[in-house]
Design a protein that fits this description.
Structural class: alpha+beta
Strand order of the largest sheet: 1-2-3-4-6-5
Number of helices: 3
Number of strands: 6
Helix content: 25-40%
CATH class: Alpha Beta
Strand content: 15-25%
Distance between the termini: 30 Å
Order of helices and strands: HEEEEHEEH
Oligomer: single chain
Radius of gyration: 13 Å
Largest sheet: 6 strands, antiparallel
Number of domains: 1
Shape: globular
CATH topology: Aspartate Aminotransferase, domain 1
Amino acid sequence: MADTVDEAFAALTERFAGEPGVSWTAGRRSFGDGALKVDGRIFAMPRAGGLVVKLPAARCSALLADGSAGPYDRGKGTPLKEWVVVTDRARWPELAAEALVFVRG
């Protein structure tokens, strides 16, 4: 397993590199930089010491309730309903794949 969040995210970007419509942007200056996107929309990005994924609000609530994820708030103090932070790197591929399906629609 990768030693750092950046290394783990790099491995994740390689995993999704061949998916239709998936791209990766470099950088970490603002929301969306350094993120995995599908058709230009973010589905996963490294932040807050983990992987932030976009999932349906009900799925996010379930992950928060069972302790699998933490809230994500973009630093503004209000958690986003469809975004959570996952620190367990073993779950990143599974939840990123779910996020890709969700965002792709």
